[in-house]
Amino acid sequence: MPELPEVEVVRRGLERWVSGRIVADVQVLHPRAVRRHIAGGEDFGARLKGHRIGLPQRRGKYLWLPLADQPSAVLAHLGMSGQLLVQPEDAPDEKHLRIRVRFDDTLNTELRFVDQRTFGGLSLHTTTPEGLPDVIAHIARDPLDPQFDDAAFHEALRRRRTTIKRALLDQSLISGVGNIYADEALWRSRLHYERPTTGFTRPRTAELLGHVRDVLYEALTAGGTSFDSLYVNVNGESGYFDRSLDAYGREGEPCRRCGTAIRRRPWMNRSSYFCPRCQRVPRVAS
Ligand SMILES: [Zn+2]
């Protein structure tokens, strides 16, 4: 699944290539791709037709295209392998093309939703007064959002009887921090993933948030990264970027700070990578 930086790269591509264009028609080539649009593919297309696409928005890993003239938005579910491509109208169809959106202009490009594994899709939703599709109204702001409230996040951390990595992946507290970026930020902060959050001080929370933002910005600067080679950004370039990671995926390799072998532990059906020397196991587990 693409993480925040990859989704932001796609959002920027859509902003450049799709924003402001009026939908001429929508072709749904596979019903699964619109299964989250309860009224079905025909209704989905009919509701888009004639409407102008507004400025593409993102919160955490969620991406949506607001319709400029009404309180609704197309939410993109990229799933494991979903891609949004802007292609010349005469480009041959991709093998796994699911939805085609044509525009009412002379740019001769169209928006395509391509998905090999059909976990993803597009759906139209009413937006909240804040401009979010209603189905994701509960998702917290992400740490790159200028309105993210650091102090409120710190207070929430202290109130919750949880551990730090669980908190970082809790979309109701902070959105857009996936497993990879959580492990990287924790390594930089020298924090073990099971450290209870109740004892966090303000400076500790501030340092951690700083590292979270750094790893996300660095990935964004690198053009987004993904470990799924199927993932392609909106211009059709591969989003895959062989980036240097300090913790994630480095089991048995030396910690870049102290040389100790990085360890991997099963964690909530995933893995946690950490340096056993720099990131000490907390004495009291919560
Ligand atoms: Zn170390």
From TrEMBL:
Keyword Transmembrane helix: no
Reactions accelerated catalytically: Hydrolysis of DNA containing ring-opened 7-methylguanine residues, releasing 2,6-diamino-4-hydroxy-5-(N-methyl)formamidopyrimidine; 2'-deoxyribonucleotide-(2'-deoxyribose 5'-phosphate)-2'-deoxyribonucleotide-DNA = a 3'-end 2'-deoxyribonucleotide-(2,3-dehydro-2,3-deoxyribose 5'-phosphate)-DNA + a 5'-end 5'-phospho-2'-deoxyribonucleoside-DNA + H(+)
InterPro entries the record matches: DNA_glyclase_Znf_dom_DNA_BS, FPG_cat, FPG_Glyclase, FPG_N, H2TH_FPG, Ribosomal_uS13-like_H2TH, Znf_DNA_glyclase/AP_lyase, Znf_FPG/IleRS
GO terms, molecular function: 8-oxo-7,8-dihydroguanine DNA N-glycosylase activity; class I DNA-(apurinic or apyrimidinic site) endonuclease activity; damaged DNA binding; double-stranded DNA binding; zinc ion binding
The record's free-text note on cofactor binding: Binds 1 zinc ion per subunit.
Residues at the catalytic site: P2 (schiff-base intermediate with dna), E3 (proton donor), K61 (proton donor), R270 (proton donor)
GO biological process: base-excision repair; response to oxidative stress
Subunit structure: Monomer.
Family recorded in the similarity comment: Belongs to the FPG family.
Name this protein carries in UniProt: Formamidopyrimidine-DNA glycosylase
Taxonomic path: Bacteria, Bacillati, Actinomycetota, Actinomycetes, Kitasatosporales
Gene behind this protein: mutM
